[in-house]
Amino acid sequence: MDVEIRFLGAAKSVTGSKYLLRIDGEAYMVDCGLFQGPSNMRRRNWEDVVEHPDKIKEVFLTHAHIDHSGYLPRLVKKGFKGKIYCTKATAALLKIMLLDAGKLQEEEAKWAYKKGYSTHKNPEPLFTTKDAEKCLELVHTCEYDQTVLVNDRIQLVFRNAGHILGSAMIEMKLIGDNMSKEILFSGDLGKHKQHMHEAPFVKESTDVLLVESTYGDRNTPDIDPISAFGEIINEAVADGCLIIPSFAVGRTQQILYYLYRLHKNKQIPENIRVFVDSPMAINVTALYKNFKSDHKLEIEDKNHSVFDAAFIRYINAQEDSINLNLIRKNTIIISASGMVTGGRILHHMYHRLPNKKDTILFVGYQAEGTKGREILSGENDVSIFGINVPVKAKIRELDGLSAHADMKDLHQWLGNFKEKPKRTFIVHGEEMAAQALQNHLVSEEWSNVIIPDFLESFKLFQSI
Ligand SMILES: [Zn+2]
Question: How far apart are the CA of 160 and the centre of ligand 1, in A?
């Protein structure tokens, strides 16, 4: 058996996770994500980096985040007909997220047509909700920690990655003619100590490792995020509103849980109002109730869900979302997307950024090229809906909430390997972060630690 890997994304960057494996000439894919962020990155979504999508046998998915799953409908549109292997919670999340992504793509194409943004006369969406629906029919669900027989040459085991609901690292066992080998895809790893999930599964050996490096060069502060959050809220809502751009999956539920605790302990104003203004976040919040064993958030208090507390309201209708712009104080608005790249958060930013009484609170990683990064890095104005909006609102950041392992978590997880992998690829990190992790591993006497380039290929095994 000959095995080759090609890095179709998340190589010296954090989005577009996609790895193409050629196993004796047959193609498989691990993760199938969209590129996000600056336009030179997003343009890659339109390039046919996968030569023959119809010839890809199967896709194996670590988790539902769009930068790992959002290219799937495009792959289906281009002819992919195989199965998409993932955990049950990932499948449930995909249903919400891919349909939403399809709708967004359609809206963007319409908008580009109306405003004449596109260089094409009739701008096409990357994919449609129909493509997303077709894609969902191909999903094949797997249990954690069970061996999945893909065929007589490939076996998989999904292990908890502690990152988001349903997230997994994938152990891929390849049964060759002469011997077996294992590749471990870490996917995105969660923190060691956290409120949401158990720590990532401990691995002690593998032949080839792909490890993420989002926070390879920095630690997130070791603070009690709940009390830090409480302080920010009290400062922000006395004479203004607090706007939180939040990821619909995980972060929103974590924040709601913290708000519940703060409110119950009377650490924030009793009459505060909290609005969750994101249909996707609302649907995902419901999933947390269905997949209780997949997370460790204590979402029930005396048989009542913390998500149904009276001070929390869920906004579905667009009109109600727009009406939130009229509220002046004592209010928290949680809206998506988390990096201010699209969705209802855009109109909140448009209205709140020029107002110095309001506060914007970032609660997650802001990738290069996103509006979130621009605002956080202190730009005086940002372009929203094609208009330059001055940044007068207070900008705050709550750092300890990331769903990603930070530097010391990564070091700890990698330190579990009793036998060092023969080859390690550092992926899913901007260049500085990937390099810092590479330096660390080299100092720990790991050999063959590689930071692959976009579209670079490597022969992993020959004649095994
Ligand atoms: Zn992720």
Answer: 13
Beta-bridged to residue 381, according to DSSP, are 390
Both tokens of 225, joined, read: 């995020």
Do 333 and 241 form a contact (C-beta atoms < 8 A)? yes
Whole-angstrom distance, CA of residue 276 vs CA of residue 257: 13
Ligand 1 centroid distance, CA of 182 (Å)? 23
Q: How far apart are CA 290 and CA 170, in angstroms?
A: 23
With residue 400 as reference, give the H or E element that holds it.
none
Question: What is the crossing angle of helices 251-264 and 225-237, to 10°?
Answer: 80
Q: What is the mean pLDDT of residues 367-386?
A: 92
Phi, psi (deg, nearest 5) at residue 175: -95, 100
Confirm if 338 and 246 have CB atoms less than 8 A apart: yes
Q: DSSP alpha helices (H): ranges in 293-401?
A: 318-323, 345-352, 371-376
SS3 140: strand
Q: Per DSSP, which regions of 326-456 are E strands?
A: 331-335, 359-362, 381-384, 387-390, 394-397, 423-427, 449-450
pLDDT in tens, 29-49: 999 999 987 888 889 999 987
C-alpha 367 – ligand 1 centre gap (Å): 12
CA 408/CA 299 separation, integer angstroms = 29
Which residues contact residue 187 at a Cβ distance below 8 angstroms, ignoring those fewer than 6 apart? Answer: 31, 62, 63, 68, 161, 163, 167, 168, 169, 170, 212
Around ion ligand 1, which residues have CB less than 5 A away? 65, 188
Give the Å distance between the CA of 240 and the centre of ligand 1.
32
Distance (angstroms) between ligand 1 centre and the Cα of 65 equals 5
Predicted confidence (pLDDT) per residue in 288-307, tens digit: 989 988 998 877 777 788 89
Q: Are 129 and 102 in contact (CB under 8 A)?
A: yes
> Both tokens of residue 333?
């608005």
| Ligand 1 center–CA 249 separation, angstroms | 10
Domains parsed from the chain with CATH numbers: 3-218+403-461 (3.60.15.10), 225-401 (3.40.50.10890)
Ligand 1 midpoint to CA 163 (Å): 7
Query: What string of H, E and C letters represents the secondary structure of 35-95?
Result: CCCCHHHHHHHHCCCCCCHHHEEEEECCCCCHHHHCCHHHHHHCCCCCEEEEEHHHHHHHH
State residue 300's pLDDT score. Answer: 76
Distance, CA of 243 to CA of 334 (rounded, Å):
6
